[in-house]
Amino acid sequence: MADSVSDQIRKDYKELKDWSGLSDKTSRRVYEHQSSSLEDAGDNIPTDERENNNASSDPAAFVVIYGWIYPSSEPFNGKKLPIQIRLAKAYPFLPPTVYMGIQLRHPNIEENGRMCIDLLNPETESEKLSLVKVVEAAVKLMDEPNTDSSVDTETAVLCQKDRLNYNRNITTAVNTQVSR
User: Fold this and answer.
1) Which domain holds residue 111?
2) Share of the chain above pLDDT 70, in %
3) Which PANTHER family match (predicted)?
4) 87, 81, 51: which is closest to 67 by C-alpha?
5) Largest CB tally within 10 Å, which of 3, 66, 73, 120?
6) Which of 69, 85, 88, 116 is catalytic?
7) What is the pLDDT of residue 172?
């Protein structure tokens, strides 16, 4: 079973990298691949313990994929945002988790950076969920915050009632933490 899980991770990872290359050639970039703890791994599925500060209590529980997403809506306007996609060793039987790579007050991002994407609910049929769909869901969440299911209620209220200040706060956070 471990081999089939390893094969599934590698297959989905390759699909994401291939899709990223296609995304680069279109007029609207959605995702740019950066790196992964899978690269140069040979036959082993490595883990990345450096990034364990936000995730699992098991230091060897996941593979990490690094990339950039490009939400198009105001206040992001196509600026790149760093993300990490973490695949548990039990993937695809457990859904991936997605972390924002910068500090951002967003209705659906926990304080530790974990993005709360409905599609990644453990009750979801994650076996049929591709990493491409995960990235698309992350971009959509940034473009269209789900204020009805927020983890940061203060920011959700600001997003609903004072979108101008919400956008200003996001723009400031992105501009100070991410270079274009």
Assistant:
1) 2-177
2) 77
3) UBIQUITIN-CONJUGATING ENZYME E2
4) 81
5) 120
6) 116
7) 95
Q: How far apart are CA 36 and CA 9, in angstroms?
A: 12
- Read off φ and ψ for residue 170, nearest 5 degrees: -65, -45
Q: What is the CATH number of the domain that holds 140?
A: 3.10.110.10
Domain count, the chain: 1
**Local confidence band at 105 (pLDDT 50, 70, 90 cut-offs):** very high
- 43 band by pLDDT with thresholds 50, 70 and 90: very low
pTM: 0.82
Closest CA to 97 of 113, 82, 73, 111: 113
